[in-house]
């Protein structure tokens, strides 16, 4: 895919596949769109917002089969990097993660995940760096994947421990305040 030009994402085979199998897994509940590219492949900011993002929002509206009820967008100023949540009149909620500022060592990543009452349809891999096989760290010097040898959490270590180790290796300050964040999440979910 080339997002440097406006093209119809409605012809995207992943979207077509999900649309063609609607109803087979029950009622649609939520959607997640992931659009990530290295900075070297970034489109103009105008195309990023009004080409790529508007088209992805349109795909969500079509799958939700309802009008847009509410939209919240957090965009990094001057960069093609945003997170958005959209609610539709049908009760479907869509999450968007669009980022065209990845290190040049990273590959393009385009996913749609459609969650239904009895399953989901997606082109996101079931194994790999998105799940149990480990963590990914990428910068301009390259892409490194850290794979755990054991599924035992006490032996394998956690994602947070892996990230903190990477911060130490890169000479950046360790993350702090995790306890306060965990407390805030607990309050938000009533625990």
Describe the overall structure.
It is a single chain. This protein has helices at 13-20, 45-64, 153-156, 159-170, 178-188, and strands at residues 28-38, 68-75, 81-88, 93-102, 109-116, 119-122, 135-139, 142-146. By secondary structure, it is α+β, with helices and mostly antiparallel strands. It folds into two domains: 27-122, Dihydrodipicolinate Reductase, domain 2, CATH 3.30.360; 125-176, no CATH class. The strands form two sheets. It has a six-stranded mixed β-sheet, covered by helices on one side. It has a two-stranded antiparallel sheet with strand order 7-8. A hairpin with a 2-residue loop joins β5 and β6 (119-122). It is globular and about 45 Å long. The relative contact order is 0.15. The model is unreliable at 1-7 and 148-157 (pLDDT under 50).
Arrangement of strands in the largest sheet: 2-3-4-1-5-6
Number of helices: 5
Give the name of the CATH superfamily of the largest domain: Dihydrodipicolinate Reductase, domain 2
- CATH C-level class of the largest domain is Alpha Beta
* First and last CA, distance: 44 Å
Series of H and E elements? HEHEEEEEEEHHH
| CATH fold-level assignment of the largest domain | Dihydrodipicolinate Reductase, domain 2
Specify the structural class: alpha+beta
Number of domains: 2
């Amino acid at each position: 895919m080339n997002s440097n030009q406006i093209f119809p994402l409605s012809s995207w085979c992943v979207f077509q596949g999900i649309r063609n199998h609607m109803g087979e897994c029950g009622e649609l509940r939520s959607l997640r769109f992931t659009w990530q590219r290295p900075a070297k492949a970034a489109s103009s900011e105008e195309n990023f917002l009004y080409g790529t993002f508007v088209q992805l929002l349109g795909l969500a509206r079509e799958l939700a089969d309802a009008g847009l009820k509410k939209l919240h967008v957090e965009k990094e100023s001057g960069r093609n990097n945003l997170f958005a949540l959209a609610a539709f009149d049908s009760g479907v909620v869509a999450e968007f993660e669009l980022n065209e500022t990845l290190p040049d060592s990273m590959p393009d990543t385009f996913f749609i995940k459609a969650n239904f009452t009895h399953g989901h349809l997606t082109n996101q891999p079931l194994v790999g760096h998105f799940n149990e096989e480990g963590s990914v760290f990428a910068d301009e010097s390259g892409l490194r994947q850290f794979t755990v040898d054991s599924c035992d959490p006490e032996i394998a270590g956690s994602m947070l421990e892996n990230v903190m180790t990477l911060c130490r290796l890169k000479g950046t300050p360790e993350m702090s305040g995790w306890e306060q964040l965990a407390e805030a999440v607990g309050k938000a979910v009533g625990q």
